[in-house]
Design brief:
By secondary structure, the protein is an alpha/beta fold. It folds into 2 domains: 9-190 and 234-255, 3-Layer(aba) Sandwich (Rossmann fold), CATH 3.40.50; 191-227. It is built from 8 helices and 7 strands. The chain has a 7-stranded parallel sheet with strand order 3-2-1-4-5-6-7, sandwiched between helices. Strand 5, helix 5 and strand 6 form a beta-alpha-beta unit. It is globular. The two termini are 30 Å apart.
Length: 263
C-alpha cells in the first residue's frame, strides 16, 4: 500500500534511538524527508551519518534540541523552515518513565515528570504549528504509554502525567479538526536500551536473551509472550501519519501484545 508520504517532510523528536529512530527509518523508506532531534550531539551526528549514507544526505536533517525548552523547539522549527520550508508530520516521541509510588514521589519529582510529559508535546506542537497549518495533509502523532489508561501502582507519577497528555491530545484533535489530524499510539512494553541493560545485568548469565524476555513477558502477563519491537511501533506511527487515512483523528492505537485489561 502506498501511504502517500513520498516528498513529505516529517519531524521526529527523540529520533536517535528506539522508536524514534525506527520511525525515522520507516518514513525515509516511504520516500519522506526526515528531520530528527535529540539531546546528545555525538549520538545525533552518528545517526545522521548512518541515515545519510543509506538514504542520501539531502534527505536527513539532524538538530540538537531539548524539547522541554521552548527556545530549543523554536530553533529546531527554524532549522526545518530553512531546510525545507515546510512540515507535514510531527511525531512527538520524547519521554521516559519514573518508577515511584505516591509515598516515594517528592514534589520536585512530580513537577519534573509533569513538565517533561506535557512540554515535550506542547513546545514542539507550538513551534511547528504554522508550518503544519500550511500543509494540505498535516498530522501529529504522539507516542504515549498504556499507563495513560491502565495505571500501575509503582508508576503513579508517570501514569498520571501520561493520562493528562492523552486528554490534551484529544482536546487538540478537536481544536485542530479539519486542519491537522492528532492521533497517538499507546504502548505496552517495547524493546529498548533500558531492557537491554537489564538483560545484561541479569543474575543468571547462562540465561539466553530469548529465555530472559519470555520470563519477563510471563511476569508482566503479556499474552504474546514477548516485548514489542520498535519497528512494529514505527509502522503504526507511519500509518497514522499517512494522508490515506485522512478521516482518523483523536484516535489512540494500542500496541501492547494484548496486555491491556480495560475495555
Amino acid at each position: 500500500m502506498d501511504l502517500g508520504l513520498a516528498g513529505r517532510v516529517v519531524i521526529v523528536t527523540g529520533g536517535t534511538s528506539g522508536i524514534g529512530l525506527a520511525s525515522a527509518r520507516v518514513f525515509l523508506e516511504e520516500g519522506a524527508d526526515v528531520a530528527i532531534c535529540g539531546r546528545d550531539a555525538a549520538r545525533l551526528e552518528r545517526v545522521r551519518m548512518d541515515l545519510a549514507i543509506e538514504f542520501g544526505v539531502e534527505r536527513v536533517l539532524a538538530a540538537r534540541c531539548d524539547v522541554t525548552k521552548a527556545a530549543d523547539a523554536d530553533a529546531f522549527a527554524q532549522a526545518v523552515q530553512a531546510w525545507r520550508g515546510r512540515a507535514d508530520v510531527l511525531v512527538n516521541n520524547a519521554g521516559q518513565g519514573r518508577m515511584s509510588t505516591f509515598a516515594t514521589t517528592t514534589d520536585e519529582q512530580w513537577r519534573e515528570e509533569l513538565d517533561l510529559k506535557y512540554f515535550s508535546q506542547i513546545y514542539p506542537i507550538r513551534a511547528f504549528l504554522p508550518m503544519l497549518e500550511a500543509s494540505d495533509a498535516a498530522a501529529i502523532v504522539a507516542v504515549n504509554s498504556l499507563l495513560a489508561y491502565q495505571p500501575e501502582p509503582y508508576m503513579v507519577c508517570t501514569s498520571s502525567a501520561r493520562a493528562g497528555v492523552q486528554s490534551l491530545l484529544k482536546s487538540l484533535a478537536t481544536e485542530f479538526a479539519g486542519r491537522i489530524r492528532v492521533n497517538s499510539v499507546v504502548l505496552g512494553l517495547i524493546e529498548s536500551g533500558q531492557w537491554e541493560r537489564r538483560f545484561e545485568a541479569r543474575d543468571d548469565k547462562s540465561q539466553s536473551r530469548d529465555a530472559w524476555i519470555a520470563a519477563l513477558a510471563k511476569s508482566k502477563h503479556i499474552p504474546f509472550g514477548r516485548l514489542g519491537k520498535p519497528e512494529e511501533v514505527a509502522r503504526a506511527v507511519t500509518f497514522l501519519s499517512s494522508p490515506k487515512v485522512a478521516y482518523i483523528t483523536g484516535a489512540s492505537l494500542e500496541i501492547s501484545g494484548g496486555v491491556s485489561r480495560y475495555i
